[in-house]
Automatic annotation (TrEMBL):
This is Reverse transcriptase (RNA-dependent DNA polymerase). Keywords: Nucleotidyltransferase, RNA-directed DNA polymerase, Transferase. The keyword Transferase applies. It comes from the Bacteria. It comes from Candidatus Kentrum sp. LPFa. GO terms for molecular function: RNA-directed DNA polymerase activity.
Amino acid sequence: MDLWQQGYKVVLDADIQGFFDNIPHSVIMAELASVVADGNILGLVERFLRAGVMENGVF
């Protein structure tokens, strides 16, 4: 891996496809709201959770 050769100590490769689809978004938002007070950030994250995904040019 290029990152390892560049001197990084830890490299993580994870397949998280569908991960957030398996956790109720209300739970994610409640946890995030406990550490983030900015409503603009919370709204942005909520929109990201609802957004579709484009893979290989297909939405």
